[in-house]
Structures are given as structure tokens and as C-alpha cells.
Amino acid sequence: MKIAIVGTGYVGLVTATCLAEVVGLELICVDIDDKKIEKLKNGICPIYEPGLEDMLRRNIQKGRLVFTTSLDAVVKDVDVVFSAVGTPPDEDGSADLQYVLDVAKTIGENIEKVTKSTVPVGTANLVRAAIQEQLDKRGVNVNFDVASNPEFLKEGDAINDFMKPDRIVCGVDSPIAEELLTKIYKPFVLNGHPVIFTDIASAEMIKYTANAMLATRISFMNDIANLCEIVGADINMVRKGIGSDTRIGNKFLYAGVGYGGSCFPKDVKALIKTADSYGYSLDVLKSVEKVNDKQKRVLFDKLLKYYDGNLAGKRIALLGLAFKPNTDDMREAPALVLIDLLLKAGCTVLAYDPVAMEESYRRIGNKITYCNDVYETLQDADALLLVTEWTEFRVLDFNKVKSLMNKPVIFDGRNIYDAHEMRSHQIDYFSIGKKNL
For this structure, is 263 an active site residue? Predict the structure, then answer.
């Protein structure tokens, strides 16, 4: 069996590499970006994901992974096509299906046998129609199936998620598609977690609903954290108290500076727009989005209050640029919002992130100063803003921190430091959802 995966972004590359590693099939990865394909041919991974580059190189050497820019030539020779191209938010927040439908069109122009394509929410019928339209133009009759196979990969732990999945969801409408997907995923469900087969519409909804639920938990806890500060409660104690309830559980209950990344913001927006297009308003999710937008500026508001509304000329140290640890992804990252607010307020911004500084420079150039380590970032700083909870930020030499800073004050956006320890070092300390000591 030959499999083509169109799109070598985060989902496509992880999927291809893991399938090659475990199933041992020939995977053909397709992308329109010539430079990216050349790097991949040489074993250079375009994204940061722990363990991925070593696995990528191993499977290239074994001949299981090949890369090309020509989907036209590939489609005729493969049994399965996974469409893993991006669905970025359109101007109105809905998913932009341009790239998905372009892939479908190319498939329809070239397929000569059964092809399967995995697609994001709400597009199965559009993809099917786009393929059929091209077949009609060619005057040929080719049986094909479209299946929905949403991914559940956490950035920073994607390989583990793919290799040991909680569940694999497949939306199908034919026995052939079900049989083929069962064969592909059989090695991944030996841990007892099943492949869940549903109708296509339900599969398309599962991924978006899962991300929307997790985003809701985050925004809910951030809202409660802000109330905790007002009434004098401690959000960490609240989290432990409710997390011990088996009906609630303890995942995604941490307060912070809001969610970002490639999935939660985009999927929440897309689900809202899907509902709107059917005349239904998802009011809870609209509030989730509103709370998250507000939360991304919470550290700035605390800093502004601390300096009595005047930040002009202040030298601000930022620790963390990626939206979460163990990735260089800055899509919808809270750090981008903070940087914009700080610069507009007249601040000089110095930043350090273990892996995301190159990505930051690609996005915003030299608007900020990039430093080589934590302590260089803190030199003569008027405040430290902790944005991303990288492991190396958790244990610092706070005597050195205090000696380097012009004004020893920390605004902890991830609640990783201890307020009593900060007070013992005579460092002013502000966190999320806790009364300041």
C-alpha cells in the first residue's frame, strides 16, 4: 500500500513520519513549498517537535519517506491520500478551505483508482463534489471514497500522542473505507484503545468539539482566576479542590495568560462561524473567545497598574515567546499581544525563548531585542514578564535575578513561582488568580 500525505506542516509531517516508523509503508509527502521539500529531502525538519527530526532522518534513510512538489504525478500511483493542508481562519473567522479544495481538484484531475482523503470539519461534501466535478470534466467513472480522520496531536508531545493514541476517530460511509483505515491504524491500537468509526459529519464535529471544550475550560478557569484575585481566594487551591471531583478531572484547569497555537483559536472561531451559518449562535463559545482575548493582556494591565499608568522608557524582559513549551509555534501566542501592547506604550522589550526566537524574528523582525539566555534578558530590566512555562525558567537564581534587574518585580503569567520565596528575596511578585503578598 502506498500513501500520499499532502501538506508537510505540523500534522502532515508528524503523521507521515509516524506511519512510516510503525507501519513500514512507503509514504510520499507532497508540498508546494520547494525550499521546504529540499530541506526535508536532506533530513532537515522545518518545525520543532521533540524526537521528530531523528525519526524523520531514520525513515528517509530506510526509503520509507520521500518528498515531492508534484501531487499530479503522485495521485495516480497511491492507494490513499491524506489531505493535511492548512485551514487558516478566513477574514470572518470561518475556516479557509481554499487549499483543501485545491487538493481535491487535483485528485479529481488525476485519480485512476480509489482514493481516500481526510478533511477538516464541514468539508467532506465539498471535497467529494470537487473531485466528482473534475472526473465529470474528464468523462471518466472512478469509484472513490472520502473519509474524515481528525487528528488529536498536542504540540510538544505529538509523537507520543500518535504512537499511543487515546482514540482514533474515522468518519466513513463505505465498508471499503472502513476496511482500509482499520488496516492502516491496526498497529496503533494494540494498547486497547479503539478506532472509533462514525458517520462523516460526526467525525468532522468531534475534533472541533474537543478543542472547543478544552478552550472553554481554560477560559473558564481564567475568568475564575480573575475573580479569585478580587475576593482574595487562591486559584491554585480552587483548581485542586474542583480537580479532585471525578466529574471534572484535573486537566486544563491551570490559569494563565490565555490559549494560543494552531488549533484552539482557529477551531473555536470556525465552530462559531459554522453555527452562525446555520442560524444558530454558540453563545458559550463566543464568551470563551472574548475571555481569552482579554486574558492575553492581563500581564500588561498588571504592569501598567504597577507603574501608575506610565510605561514610557521602561525596559521589559519577556521570558517565553512560543504559545506553549516544547514548540516554536507562535500562532496566536499571548507573547505577540503583549509585545504589541508594550511597544505601543513606549517600552523597550528584551526577550528569550529556548527555540522560538527565530520564529519570532520571522514574524516581527527586530522590533524587540533577542537575548542569549535568561540572565542577559534581565540586565537592567524594570520588570520580568513570564509568558511561557519552559522548564529552564522554573528554577532561577533569584539573588542573581534581583541583582541584575533595575527594578526587581516579576509578573508570572503561568504561576510557576512561589510568592513566599519571592518575598524572601525582596522581589515584588504578581501572579494569576492569587492575592498579592
Answer: yes
